[in-house]
Write a structure and sequence with these properties.
six-stranded mixed β-sheet, alpha/beta, 307 residues
Amino acid sequence: SFSVQAQNWDMPTPYPEGNYLTQNVIQFAEEVAELTDGRLTITVHAGASLFRMPEIKRAVRTGQAQIGEILLSAYGNENAIFEVDGVPFLAAGFDNAEKLWEAQRPILEEVLAEEGLKVLFTGVWPGQGLYNQEAVNSLADLQGSPFRAYNAATSRLAELMGAVPTTVQYAEVPQAFSTGVVRSMLTSATTGVDVQAWDFLEYYYSTDAMHPKNLVFVNQRAFDALDADIQEAVLTAAANAEARVWAQAREEGAKAEAELAANGMNVLEPSAALLEEFEAIGAQMTQEWIENAGERGQRLIDAFEAM
């Protein structure tokens, strides 16, 4: 059916407009408008202005918005498949993170199809590195040290490291370090720059422990209601957006590490001993994740390990 009627979709996203992931989504929306000659426009509502992140998935499922973006691992309590990229040292570094997404995608598509949702593309965050006040040659150096946790996986990681998990929200990070509430954390170099980690920390190790992902997804019924050529345009713009943002995340991570160093932090590769200890913890946490995720989780890990 040929429709001249232009359609507009609302797109709630959780991060501020200046963030490179949001900028990528805005570019995606512009490309959709361009490819469809304005027959489909997407209004991006950045910074949780339309719905807060915990509400975005439900809003798209119930059709209050047609399309949305979430941090996948934030929904781990709904389904373990959402938080596989939060398992530390399962897929360290960008190359492994790309393989993990390839293994996760078909299984995530099954899970979301049951909710009437369709996967469009992911955005990815730079690797998570280890920050500490003193040099860390092995985990023995972190015994009993208060470690910043921000979800179940980072709490479990702290326990297995012999550190003491201490929950500190993003906004409270600088104060928690300057008052000694926490002494180490695992987060991206990008976040380190945002919180000016050099004011209260000396060392950063680029462990690339995990690469959390954002997911852009659409209400399946809204997608099915589009003319075939418009559907095609959305999928083309989505593929372009995914390729673009994964390349950009690599640049952002490198740029942020350089900035930590320029501000006087020691930016180092982890020692062989430390990496070995971290890999052992990663293997244990992966096993625990599979037990939690069940048959689909096992299938995902099998696919990942076969790559």
